[in-house]
Amino acid sequence: MRNCVTYALDSHDMLPRLASLKDSSLRRPALARAMFIAGIAIALCLTGNAKAYSQKPLNVMNIKLHAYNKLSWEQFQCYNWLIHHESRWSHTARNGSHYGLGQMRSAWYGTLSPKKQIDAHLAYIQHRYKGRPCLALAHWERKGWH
């Protein structure tokens, strides 16, 4: 299991980043993010999904980490819930004329990489909901769309 967790942290460049932040004020947030990833990696290792994790270059965990790095914890929780219900974190999801992680109404959006889809979706949330995914989630809960 140790190799599994080490692989997870290495695959996200967390171990070298933590080492480089030895006396920095950014070390504590970086350590918290590494602990978050390690927790998910341990869960994957214990459930026997470690092999699947190590073979996928665009694992959902990588995509979530990209979003998490752009938001506060509270806003990430709302964003995670929103994307889970929109696309189950599948960047290839399609529902009629809506594509990708955020189910945006653009075929172009569906051709983007998962990280670019998150960036574009967060730009949309910035424009429409003042950059607050929790407001987008509240709208989704009231109307069924955001």
What does this structure look like?
Helices cover 68% and strands 3% of the residues. With 146 residues, it is an all-alpha fold. It folds into two domains: 1-55; 66-146, no CATH class. Helix 6 runs parallel beside helix 9. The longest helix has 20 residues, at 27-46. The radius of gyration is 16 Å and the shape is globular. It starts with a helix and ends with a helix.
* Counted beta strands: 2
Q: How does the overall form come out from the CA principal axes?
A: globular
What count of helical segments does DSSP give? 9
What is the topology, as strand order, of the major beta sheet?
Answer: 1-2
- H/E element order: HHHHHHEEHHH
- What is the quaternary state of this protein? single chain
Radius of gyration, in Å, reads 16 Å
Mean pLDDT across residues: 81
Unreliable stretches, pLDDT < 50, 5 or more residues? 52-56
Computed structural class? mainly alpha
In angstroms, what separates the terminal alpha carbons?
A: 40 Å
Count of folded domains: 2
The main β sheet shows up as: 2 strands, antiparallel
Strand coverage percent: under 5%
Helix content: 55-70%
